[in-house]
Amino acid sequence: MQSAKSMSNTLKQKIQPGAHVPKHLTIVLTASFLLIVLCVLASLAFGSRFVQWDQLMAGLFHSEVDSYGATVVRERIPRTVFSFCCGAALGVAGALMQAVTRNPIADPSILGVNTGASLFVVCGIAFLNISTAGQYIWLAIAGAMVTAVFVYGIGSMGRGGATPLKLVLAGAATSAALSSLVSAVMIPRTTVMDEFRFWQVGSVGAGSWSSIAAFLPFLVLGLVLALLSAPALNALALGDEVASGQGVRTGVLRMTAAFAGVILCGAATALAGPIGFIGLLSAHLIRFILGPDLRFIIPLSAVAGAVILTISDVGGRLIGSPGELEVGVVTSFAGAPLLILLAAGMKVRSL
């Protein structure tokens, strides 16, 4: 059996800043580009009405064409862009939470962060009469931040500190309690309940250019902070002592990376609802393909998250045709079995 010291050295070699680029990175990037193109075309073509290829091209490249099919394509463009933005944000948020907590099953939905954002948004609508996307985002970020701090504090209590299992249990308990509060706020208020009963499930159907414009600054800020933190997070994966020895300020790093994750998760939740498991699926997929180096995991988790969410949205439209099945339901069906497999395989140890 490989010794702990040998395993640590192996991991260190894999994630050192000077480590070689994975041999199959070019293949992964090419496949990612092709998947993005296919997802865009599928999102524009499929729905309550299937759009033929000529109408699809007309809607994309010929603004003078005003046929029904071309008009449908133009109306689906903002939804597709919005889906990619939300998926990228949730994918990176999941990768950051796994790195900061050193918990391989950390995810905004599992740790209760999505639910905290939902509670603040619902309370803002019910008690403060907020109505704009910008107001939703600020409240959701505040709720996500408070919940993340609370869950980490609860999970850190007792012997052993914030172990992966304790964090998951704290997140599950917190999420259940906050979900009850969300229901308690919504049920007596018919207007609030009617407006957000589908939002609470998670959907990208309301994506528009105005919501994308409100979301974009938070997406850019979160992605920049995540990418800047990636090399230091690699050092953190070797342990706090090793990271400190390499000059990493572990406390500041954790706060910065967690802040980036909260921004991304909160903003996405505010506009699309609490969509679960995207971060878990994305980060695990990229880690399985490329290894543990966060310099590659973080940017490619954005791509994987965007692709997974968009595929789930298209799948929901096809399954629920002529209506649609909300994307939050589809991602839950896909993510729950993965979570069960990870737990059953005893993979809840530290990364």
From TrEMBL:
<feature type="transmembrane region" description="Helical">
    <location>
        <begin position="296"/>
        <end position="315"/>
    </location>
</feature>
<keyword id="KW-0813">Transport</keyword>
<keyword id="KW-0812">Transmembrane</keyword>
<keyword id="KW-1003">Cell membrane</keyword>
<keyword id="KW-1133">Transmembrane helix</keyword>
<feature type="transmembrane region" description="Helical">
    <location>
        <begin position="81"/>
        <end position="99"/>
    </location>
</feature>
<dbReference type="Pfam" id="PF01032">
    <property type="entry name" value="FecCD"/>
</dbReference>
<protein>
    <submittedName>
        <fullName>FecCD family ABC transporter permease</fullName>
    </submittedName>
</protein>
<feature type="transmembrane region" description="Helical">
    <location>
        <begin position="207"/>
        <end position="236"/>
    </location>
</feature>
<feature type="transmembrane region" description="Helical">
    <location>
        <begin position="21"/>
        <end position="46"/>
    </location>
</feature>
<keyword id="KW-0472">Membrane</keyword>
<dbReference type="InterPro" id="IPR037294">
    <property type="entry name" value="ABC_BtuC-like"/>
</dbReference>
<dbReference type="InterPro" id="IPR000522">
    <property type="entry name" value="ABC_transptr_permease_BtuC"/>
</dbReference>
<comment type="similarity">
    <text>Belongs to the binding-protein-dependent transport system permease family. FecCD subfamily.</text>
</comment>
<feature type="transmembrane region" description="Helical">
    <location>
        <begin position="111"/>
        <end position="130"/>
    </location>
</feature>
<feature type="transmembrane region" description="Helical">
    <location>
        <begin position="167"/>
        <end position="187"/>
    </location>
</feature>
<feature type="transmembrane region" description="Helical">
    <location>
        <begin position="327"/>
        <end position="346"/>
    </location>
</feature>
<feature type="transmembrane region" description="Helical">
    <location>
        <begin position="136"/>
        <end position="155"/>
    </location>
</feature>
<feature type="transmembrane region" description="Helical">
    <location>
        <begin position="257"/>
        <end position="290"/>
    </location>
</feature>
